[in-house]
Amino acid sequence: MAISLEGILFVFIGVFVGTFIGLMPGLGPISAIAIMIPMTYNMDPTIALVMMAGVYYGAIFGGSTSSILLNAPGVAGTVATSFDGYPMAQQGKAGKALAIAAIAAFIGGTVSVVFLMLFAPVLSSVAIQFGPPEYFALMLLGLTAIASLSSGSTIKALMSALLGIMVVTIGIDAQTGTVRFTFGSANLLEGIDFLVIALGIFALAEVCALIINRQKTTFNAKTIGSLKITKEDFKEMVGPMSRQSVLGFIIGVLPGAGATIASFIGYTTEKRFAKNPDEFGKGSIKGLTAPETANNAATSGAFVPLLSLGIPGSGTTAVMLGALLVLNVQPGPLLMTENPTLFWGVIMSMYIGNIFLLILNLPLIPYISKILAIPRPMLISLVVVFCIIGVYSISFSIFDLYVLLAFGVIGYLMRMFQFPAAPFILAFILGGMLEQSFRQAMTISGNDVSIFISNPLSATLLALAAVSFLFPLWQSYRKKKKNNQSLSM
Amino acid sequence: MKKLVSVSASSFLTLVMLSACSDNGSEEAASSDQGEWSPTNNLEFVAPAGAGGGWDTTARMAAQAFEEAGIVDVGIGVINREGGGGAVGWSYIANQAGDPHYLFAASPPLLLIPLNGQSEYSYEDFTPIANVIADFGAFAVRDDAPWQDLNELFEDMQDESSSITVVGESAPGSMDHVQFVNIAKAAGVDPGSITYVSAQDGSAMTNLLNGSVDVYSTGVTETIEQVRAGEVRVLAVTAEERLEGDTVEDYPTAIEQGIDEVFVNWRGFFGPPDMTEAEVEYYVNAFTELNESEEWDAVRERYSWDEYFMVGEEYKQFLEEQNEEMRLLLEELDLYGESE
Lengths: 489, 340
Known about the structure:
The complex is a heterodimer of chains A (489) and B (340).
Chain A: H1 5-23, H2 29-36, H3 45-62, H4 64-70, H5 81-127, H6 132-143, H7 146-149, H8 154-168, E1 171-172, E2 179-180, H9 194-212, H10 231-253, H11 259-273, H12 285-301, H13 303-309, H14 315-326, H15 335-338, H16 340-361, H17 365-368, H18 376-395, H19 398-416, H20 421-445, H21 451-454, H22 456-488
Antiparallel strand pairs in A: 1-2
Helix pairs in contact in A: 1-3, 1-16, 2-3, 2-14, 3-12, 3-14, 3-16, 4-5, 5-10, 5-12, 5-13, 5-16, 6-20, 6-22, 8-20, 9-18, 9-19, 9-20, 10-11, 10-12, 11-12, 18-19
Chain B: H1 11-24, H2 27-32, E1 43-47, H3 54-68, E2 76-80, H4 87-94, E3 102-106, H5 109-115, E4 127-142, H6 150-158, E5 165-168, H7 175-186, E6 195-198, H8 204-209, E7 215-219, H9 220-228, E8 232-237, E9 264-271, H10 277-292, H11 294-303, E10 306-311, H12 312-332
Parallel strand pairs in B: 1-2, 1-3, 5-6, 5-7
Antiparallel strand pairs in B: 3-9, 4-7, 4-8, 4-9, 4-10
């Protein structure tokens, strides 16, 4: 059991390694776990899984730090964290931002473990009902949030999203094997890695902006401010934390959707339902709390299909499944009855692991945020080096570095012409699955579109997507009408 | 074209040299180097894919077993060169022509991806060293599916109004697709009529269980737990004979159902172009020793891999036959596209 001293030690090792991996962009939890597999050979399977799980949620927990301080996300799941975390750090509140992120992550992680414990079997039977038409409808619902991600022109937000969908189609098409937009380069066959784009469009573009418009510099956060979260701050956090613990967990349960999608959906839903959506993107506490809660909740969710059905719902859990097979544990529908120690061991370890993460991360904040006190020219170089190492360590490809550079420039141009980057990123994340599940569904139905409305689950999701798309339009129409009336009077 | 280069102590070694020579098409390299060779630097084993996959596991395990068994005196690093279904890793190895310190793990996609026209390098550009292991495919259906055996399924598929769909994790024209088509074709099903859905996001089993698709073409291990839980049944494995082990021993082969066809997911190691005979000989000896070592035996058992050892001319011929078979299949699927 994980409650043994040995178990606790390995939980600690797992979350420690995870935090470190989260801090460094590039090396993600998948590669880290794959590299650790040989270490687990002589371990008890429960201990091995507990450690690997620790690396996974530890990385998501730790990934927020570089998102907040440098606008350079450590892992894909923490890209959305930079939307409000980075502006907050720029306002001299880095300490507070990191503390909020740590607490939100802790709550998201812990609450979702309770759900995992209570509802795993029930939820897995719902999750399994999600076929291609349902995924298509869900992704469409996610995409309708684009309009809400723009602070200015909706047209520009839509154009930015379109660009994201275009970029995600680069590579070998999964359904036909056709090569798309690779211009004959083998390096583009597998498409562009999400982190390369995120680091380019956020971190590198920021660096470009800093160098080119010296006067408009935003890197002025010499102070990190106090770590203290006031009562008012906490009140702001409670709403997103309670909602996103649930939503993030549910998205994590769905095979194929993971922490990254959860963090974006978490962010956009909070923005939509916020009383003051204009504050989002400018250092909103809600905007920081939402993705940090959702992505950590999603990591526990990802264990539901793995532990209750033996189906890995994400790349990371697939690698864990592989490691368990080697240890002669085959997660499947019978795991909970045949191997209850493993199931309960993992759950117990996640409670302990989240506490470790909090203890590990909170005291580090004052030290780690000192990074902002580094003189600006050095800090800029540091971010560039950080991005280059991160991208290179994804696939050891020089080509990716050029892609990084290209997206740095694209990101800077988008900023200059006030095209929001977030819709681009959201469309890139959801677009791939949107297209694939649409085409899978069409193949299955023999090109009959009624497959999307003939089953109640996808029909409901589509209806929600329609409402979610039309409602803001109707709202702005009403507003205009009112304004016109008042003008004519 | 095939040219005998030198007489050696055993006919086995002659075969190896033969293959080394004719594979590279560089006779002078083979004849210029007569002495023994052993690595002077550390070796690099390349997995042309991300961490955690089949190539990665094979490369890591082989490297580990080599070191543990003390077969290789130098260090072995395993690195991942991911991209293009292997194409990025292969072009990396092709650039190491003449430097025998690089090997890479390979399996049927080394034939399939180039045949799909997605890689400028094919297996013929590299030096086959040794095949080490194999595993096999399995075709699973839901427990409540109407088909009791493979023939019933294929009969229904031959019906023109059939809406039977097959799901797999790999791209069209790669492993999961081709292993199913290969067996189905032998049973008289038109390869072009098979509806294949690719679920590369890992949702294949989910889609089988929730009824979105009818058949799941996958590896044997992926099916075991769902079969034990009574959720799915396996209609056939692509092996020649029944496999050993709990649960899997109950999986019928296609052959015993009267369909005389197999599909082997072979896995072996290749070196860069232009290796000399002495270099190939070194590796053949090393892999032969590995194959017989206790350490490698333990690895095989741990991963339920079958021993499938081939070197020299035997391996080369096997690859040629496989390649031709795959080419014909892909032509019929209209997925054959020669890369220039």
